[in-house]
Amino acid sequence: MKPFEYVAARTIDEAVEALASSKGPAKPLAGGTDLVVQLNEGRITLDRVVDIGRIPELKRVDVDAQGQLRLGAAAPCVDVYSHLNVQRLFPMLVDSASIIGSVQVQSRASIGGNLCNASPSGDSIPTLICLGAQAVIQGPSGRRVVPVEEFCTGPGQTVLQPAELVVEIVVPAPGENEGGKYLRFIPRNEMDIAVVGVGSWIRWEPQSGRITDARIALGAVAPTPVRAPEAEAALIGKEVSWDVIDEASRLAVNAARPISDVRGSAEYRRHLVSVLVRRTLLAALERAGVDVKDLGGEAYAG
Amino acid sequence: MATATQYRVIGTRPIRPDGYGKVTGKDQYGADVILPGMLYCKVLRSPHPHAIIKAIDVSKALALPGVMAVVTGDDLPRIESSEKVSSGEETIEARFMTALCLAQDKVYFKGQPVAAVAATSLATAQEALSLIEVEYEPLPVVDDVLEAMKEDAPLLHGDLYTESLAGKGSKPSNIAGRVEHARGDVDKGMAEADVVIEREFRTQMVHQGYIEPTNSTAYVAPDGRITIWTSTQGAWDIRNQVATILQIPEGMIRVIPMEIGGGFGGKFTAYLDPVVVLLSQKTGRPVKAVMTRAEVFQATGPSSGTYIRLKIGAKRDGTLVAADAFMVYDAGAFPGSPVGGASVTGLSPYNIPNFKILGFDVVTNRPRVKAYRAPGATAIAFAVETVLDEIAERLGIDPVDLRLKNAVGPGDRMTNGVPYPSIGFRELLTAVKEHPHYNAPLEGKWVGRGFAAGFWMNGSGVSTVHLTFNTDGTVNLIEGSTDIGGTRATMAQIVAEELWLEMEEVKPMVGDTQIVGFNDGTGGSRTTYSTGVAVWKACQNAIAEFKVRAARMLEVDAEEIVFEAGDFKVKGHPDRSVNIREVIRNLRHTGGHFEAVGVSGGLKMAPAFGASLVDLAVDPETGKVEILRWTQFQDVGKAIHPSYVEGQLQGGAAQGIGWALYEEYIFRDGHMLNPTFLDYRLPTALDLPMIDTCIIEVPASDGPYGVRGVGEVSIVPPPAAIANAIYRATGVRMNELPMTSERVWRAMSQRQSRVEQEAS
Ligand SMILES: Cc1cc2nc3c(=O)[nH]c(=O)nc-3n(C[C@H](O)[C@H](O)[C@H](O)COP(=O)(O)OP(=O)(O)OC[C@H]3O[C@@H](n4cnc5c(N)ncnc54)[C@H](O)[C@@H]3O)c2cc1C
């Protein structure tokens, strides 16, 4: 690791200023569980590291009276998944936050860092996309808001401009009869990178039994997390049934453009997409109040 | 030796004397060594798996402020002979050891050291590496053993000729050695068989995965005397290697083994020690080097990848009649794979009248392999024990019964013709059959139970221990065996047992090469066995002298003294006695202090048999295996400290599970693609089941209390046991390690399409 300057910012403005005024490349450090590893392995070299983990607003986890979640970008995963209202209203976010790394890693790793690191396999990103989350960004030229779905532009690439910072992630309040589930496949049972990650979210209408909205986001099968529009379309307007779920899980594969690498072949990844889409859809439906046992078929909801 | 069967201390579970330092983090490991004026060393490594070094220019690196010295292969003596040095469970030619420290003229694997820097900070040393200019001429790469064996394969070494019993080959080859064992007439045996199974197997390179990275710190004093603080299983091996590589007399070198964070056979080799000595010689300052994990993976010795073809024939009643094994073991860059160990383990547990075993030691452009827990045995056992499972299934015989029917006993012969002394294989198999796990029902879809056995010879070697005595009545025990598995506790237990002291009254420590007499390293499951004998002998020597001293205290002749339950008594006068603690406290007044020494050596073989029994579930859609229940069986002779024996059984099973399901070096053209703990997957706590153990105690023929070495055999059966369980769960026979989710899924899909094809 090359020596670098370390600045601990106390406010958002200080952080932006510290990033903007650096002579060479500078980056924010939230939990550091990606950044420090990258520095250590020489994958990046920085002149300045700006610690944003001491800015109180960035560590906040707030659910307001309407049920909207405002998540400070540097809040560690453990503060997210142990928050009672997050557990009650956003169980899908708990799915993601509670599988990143290990207990030790989760006490530092943030959702903001997971998003800004923009790894195709980042475990929180499909979930944030499914939940319709927005990233609140602040930089030298002020504030702007970008939907998480549009935030990642390539592996490690985002819409962030130099000296810009994600300060908050806003997740809209959940409605009635909605449910979401995130699952990933890893060869081990922890401390692993998703070979494939899938988030599925649905809303249905109990009276008609029809699905009224659906979002499916796939991780680790394209340069960024991607939606699976064909699969979503195959669900919307349909009555919940085993066949509909099965069809959607097959169609979801069309959205995947996986590569073969040491973690799995493209063929295996495509297969896993269909398996995980089916499993997450079943679990999402269950969370939305559908009695999935009535659907027949073999339910492998994980 | 000891005749008592009721022990006071042996077989109990006292707290380990080195426990406090471990749990408080205060113990000193190699990376904790910090000396005044110390410099930091980094090693420049070859980016090419195979290349000629045309030129090295270090001038820019030397000019960097803070850089105190740079060394290359030219700074090491050139060893032209084929002289060998000892390295734990193997020997290696000294010139190849030199090449593992700093390449001379040519690199044979990616990560091979090319130059080393000593600087005032780690960052400076790191920066200096980028200033060293090396001109390479890349050569064709061969990173697969079967490719390397071909006639037209690129040759690694122009001067390597196949060695076998027949002598040396006539032209250079990548096949470094050929081993052969045979008995009877295989063709005739196969012809008599009612069922013959022939299968091919592949296993990949795997690393010991010790958590503490390889490290070394050296200081060369102005008079040339060398001190090395290092992480090693064998301080005397390191001393011998450093002396040979640097052509310095051993007497000039003191090796201090620090606390060790795992070795498993991989820490017998001086990869860094000669380099830091060289840099300290040049600078006059202490120099320290610690490898990164990527360096550990790419530049220390993993275990061989293998190709195995195995054919076994049996009669309808399960009697094995013939076996034919063809094994190729990858040595990496320089000769020395454990194919020899494989050739005398895999088939040795069974009486087979006709067999032929042919093994090859083959070099490739990969890291040079090293010993890893029961070196060579796990891969061949994977083949043997899965083929036996298939035979049992074909014949409708219980898999344990099939083994019982053919199991060796004392007096039977190993594949190399050596007769077994006392062994407990049959007792072990009987214990499996009677175990609740074996008899528990296992229900449900996609679940299966698998069984496999394993064998390892175990080593013995030489150990020296010293006992000295304190005026408070306590005893110091100095051993030279690196304590990896809790041997300070075990050895102290023997002293406490023999001298009738409490555990707390024995103060064990590990000495260095200048404090204690010669010791072979901690490997080959030898320490408790052989060092235990040395401790036992030292105790008997102490007791003999104590008798003389007690006689003086009691004013009788020494012949009249007997030692009973901690008291030295006058024969026939039970009221006239003195306790051993009193004798120790009064040494000064009864003739002065003394030291009791014990040396072991020339012990008989005390082999170990083990077995794994596993229940598991397979996710039919992803191929992922979940282990539900595990029992590890082993004949340990006598468990001195049962907790540490159980720990060895569990540790071996855990590593075996890693081999079976997760671990492998993935290469492309000689480049390892996964040199991190992220993508080289060791099992984590969440991947391992609770590992139940079942200890069987059949006393060994030699040594104290019937002890056998217990460290290694537990890694041998797990992959085969898991493969057999996967078969019962899914109907697919896995013949490649590791059995990753993707490989299992692929095998299941292929089977599914076969089934569908046959149906249509
Ligand atoms: C052992 C281990 C296991 C892991 N397991 C997983 C896993 O299972 N799943 C998974 O998805 N990830 C995993 N990771 C990766 C990592 O922990 C996560 O991505 C984590 O969420 C990153 O958060 P952080 O706060 O540590 O980010 P940091 O490392 O602090 O930052 C990550 C990147 O984002 C930038 N950044 C951080 N915050 C902001 C911000 N507010 N605005 C702009 N840029 C910002 C940084 O500059 C850096 O480039 C693992 C890492 C380790 C070391």
Description:
The complex is a heterodimer of chains A (302) and B (760). Chain A is an alpha+beta fold. Chain A contains eleven helices and 14 strands. Chain A folds into three domains: 5-51, Uridine Diphospho-n-acetylenolpyruvylglucosamine Reductase, domain 2 (2-Layer Sandwich); 56-171, Uridine Diphospho-n-acetylenolpyruvylglucosamine Reductase, domain 3; 178-295, 2-Layer Sandwich (Enolase-like, domain 1), CATH 3.30.390.50. Chain A is 30% helix and 24% strand. In chain A, helix 2 links the parallel strand 2 (26-29) and strand 3 (48-51). In chain A, helix 9 (229-235) packs antiparallel against helix 10 and helix 10 (242-252) packs antiparallel against helix 11 (266-287). The N and C termini of chain A lie far apart (40 Å). The mean pLDDT of chain A is 96. Chain B is of the alpha+beta class and 760 residues long. In chain B, helix 10 links the parallel strand 18 and strand 19 (354-363). In chain B, the strands form nine sheets. In chain B, strands 3-7-1-16-13-14-15 form a seven-stranded mixed β-sheet. In chain B, strands 11-19-18-17-12 form a five-stranded mixed β-sheet, sandwiched between helices. Chain B has three domains: 4-26 and 460-600, 2-Layer Sandwich (Aldehyde Oxidoreductase, domain 4), CATH 3.30.365.10; 34-140 and 208-299, Aldehyde oxidase/xanthine dehydrogenase, a/b hammerhead (Aldehyde Oxidoreductase, domain 3), CATH 3.90.1170; 424-451 and 606-755, Aldehyde Oxidoreductase, domain 4 (2-Layer Sandwich), CATH 3.30.365. In chain B, helix 12 (399-406) runs antiparallel to helix 13 (425-434) and helix 15 (487-499) packs parallel to helix 16. The chains are: A alpha+beta (302), B alpha+beta (760). The A-B interface holds A 1-3, 185, 187-193, 262-265, 268, 271-272, 275, 300 and B 123, 126-127, 619, 621-622, 624, 661-662, 666, 673-674, 678-679, 681, 683-684, 686-687, 740-742, 745-746. Flavin-adenine dinucleotide binds at residues 27-35, 37, 52, 73-74, 99-101, 105, 108-110, 112-114, 116-117, 122-123, 160, 165-166, 191 of chain A.
